[in-house]
Amino acid sequence: MDKYGKLLRAAAESDDAFRRALREVLAALDITTKEFAEKAGVSSSTLYKIANEERSPSLNILRKLLRAVRELEGRRGGNFIAVIAARHVLDEVVERSISIEGKQLRTREYPATTVEDAIVASVRAERDGATAIVCAPIVSSTIEKIVDIPIATILPRDSVTEAIRLAARKSGI
């Protein structure tokens, strides 16, 4: 099992299991507590307390530690934007990469047909290493509360107008 998976499983098991796994992962990565704390963006004292003094990490700290392990393992997916939408919307996305300020960014599709699907897809996208998520306004505020990456909302002004025109034609108005 990889170090990221080991730490994640231990966090789900218990504080004690997480503490043991964290110490094992740090040893396996051959990194000091101070170096790892810097990489994760947490204070050395916080990391020390979590690893040695019976202190549980907050969800935010846990995410930072997991992200640092993923990056140290070279698993950072990064450089892609997750697009969460219904399949028929995703089928209309022509570009699979986009150039922004000289950087080439990929997009990765996450089909969702329900609000629940979109929430699960957002967690999966963050875990896969997405740098941001694009989604519908109906789920964006909920997803912002769950993930730790930026969210952009799809504002389908033109497509809504076209849908209204189509509905009007179909209804005979």
Q: Describe it for me?
A:
The protein is α/β, with parallel strands linked by helices and 173 residues long. The protein has 2 domains: 3-72, lambda repressor-like DNA-binding domains (434 Repressor (Amino-terminal Domain), Orthogonal Bundle); 80-171, Rossmann fold. The protein contains 9 helices and 5 strands. The chain has a 5-stranded mixed beta sheet. It starts with a helix and ends with a helix.
Query: Which geometry do the CA atoms define?
Result: elongated
Taken as a percent bin, the fraction of beta residues is 15-25%
> Would you tell me the overall average pLDDT?
83
Give me the side-by-side strand order of the main sheet.
2-3-1-4-5
Query: How many distinct domains?
Result: 2
Radius of gyration: 20 Å
Question: What is the SS-derived class?
Answer: alpha/beta
Number of helices: 9
Regarding CATH, which class of the largest domain?
Alpha Beta
Secondary structure blueprint with pairings:
Blueprint: H1 3-13, H2 15-29, H3 33-40, H4 44-52, H5 59-72, E1 80-85, H6 87-90, E2 97-100, E3 103-111, H7 115-128, E4 132-135, H8 137-146, E5 151-153, H9 157-171
Entry keywords:
173 residues; Rossmann fold; 434 Repressor (Amino-terminal Domain); alpha/beta; 5 strands
Summarize the structure.
By secondary structure, the chain is α/β, with parallel strands linked by helices. Helix content is 58%, strand content 15%.
